[in-house]
Amino acid sequence: xxxxxxxxxxxxxxxxxxxxxxxxxxxxxxxxxxxxxxxxxxxxxxxxxxxxxxxxxxxxxxxxxxxxxxxxxxxxxxxxxxxxxxxxxxxxxxxxxxxxxxxxxxxxxxxxxxxxxxxxxxxxxxxxxxxxxxxxxxx
Amino acid sequence: xxxxxxxxxxxxxxxxxxxxxxxxxxxxxxxxxxxxxxxxxxxxxxxxxxxxxxxxxxxxxxxxxxxxxxxxxxxxxxxxxxxxxxxxxxxxxxxxxxxxxxxxxxxxxxxxxxxxxxxxxxxxxxxxxxxxxxxxxxxxxxxxxxxxxxxxxxxxxxxxxxxxxxxxxxxxxxxxxxxxxxxxxxxxxxxxxxxxxxxxxxxxxxxxxxxxxxxxxxxxxxxxxxxxxxxxxxxxxxxxxxxxxxxxxxxxxxxxxxxxxxxxxxxxxxxxxxxxxxxxxxxxxxxxxxxxxxxxxxxxxxxxxxxxxxxxxxxxxxxxxxxxxxxxxxxxxxxxxxxxxxxxxxxxxxxxxxxxxxxxxxxxxxxxxxxxxxxxxxxxxxxxxxxxxxxxxxxxxxxx
Lengths: 139, 400
Known about the structure:
The complex is a heterodimer of chains A (139) and B (400). With 139 residues, chain A is α/β, with parallel strands linked by helices. Chain A contains 5 helices and 7 strands. In chain A, the strands form 2 sheets. Chain A has a 5-stranded mixed beta sheet. A two-stranded parallel sheet of chain A has the order 2-7. The two termini of chain A are 27 Å apart. The longest helix of chain B has 19 residues, at 2-20.
């Protein structure tokens, strides 16, 4: 029992420290069954390679318009510039390999959409994070 | 009339998808490009030495997600490049895509082959810096045989922990090739015969991409293996010759991206085995070889520049053209510089406002291997072509 509690505490601390050290966080609905993602999977989701994920029924990818959060996310998680990311999605759309994700203009809009849609996955600035959504540990 | 039929079809298909599942959104996207070409001395794929606007591309696609794992889509396209295409509308791709998990997904229908770094994007001017793809690995004359496949396919990806990640793609099927398209014209130019038919036995395409642990470094291996029968008409002998062909293309690719800089290179080798079942002719084997090195750099939101150097040999066993030019009295004689084509290209791409793209491109060419006899001013005498020549291209694209 004690060992179990220690493990849970360690996970919370790990998540907390990871979130604190990052500028951007990936968020999902608070009822989603997942709490962490390998970095390669996170990259695959936002670059259109991965369209379905265990524990995330009806996954809906949420992007932000060309704003500060979007640029920071691309740099931190995908290692891409805005134009590279735009061209990547045009490649997917014009070869039929993926559909265009939902797009939002602010962190607040992403949070609202994620709250209303259990399968939504998006990204926001860590300073906008609140307890209505779940931040994923990406490692 | 044919264009109207296609538009009606796209409306019907997409409308049906929307009605079947009214809660799901249907995406529409498209692009339109208009280009201008001018060349010194030789005509390249069109009557370019006079300057030509016979160079455009259009596409319209629709996609719908039917369930969490299944989506459907199709794209109609039209293009004009000299005497090829003439803006006739064709089905570019149309398939159902079912992704069971990140490790495996299935596709059924007509899809892009995903070979090399650029084959999927031959038509999509907006996603690259250059107007022309490097001809050493993406010869315009093979555009209609390498871009798509029609059948069943698998794809997926997997993380390899500290070793990065891999993606794979494979498809088996067949595909129609037009008897007046780029490949048919290439056959006519090289063999002095008309391609009356192409019956494909099968086409397999596969690729494996490794995103290495070094951020931005990507390695990829691709293959297209196909068997097909050509019906070739020889006007000189007034007879039709059946030719069975087994062709295997190998492409090795490397790409490194660091911030706004992208450096890439690819190598192509095509092994071709040909048999003549109805004639007492020996089997023949030949190789096509090509490669390129490319650098792209984006300076800011509206300016991107790119340069590449590419080399193409339609007969890798005769790179200096000695065999090709051995007999000046033969019908269809070619000077030795028709055995290769080397191209140094420089492109400027401007993105003046969202959706609009302007490109200016210059090519310094040496050799004529990718040119076609029927495009030249004197279609019977290739000694009138020039070994060193220039090509200028400009293109305006709108994408939505």
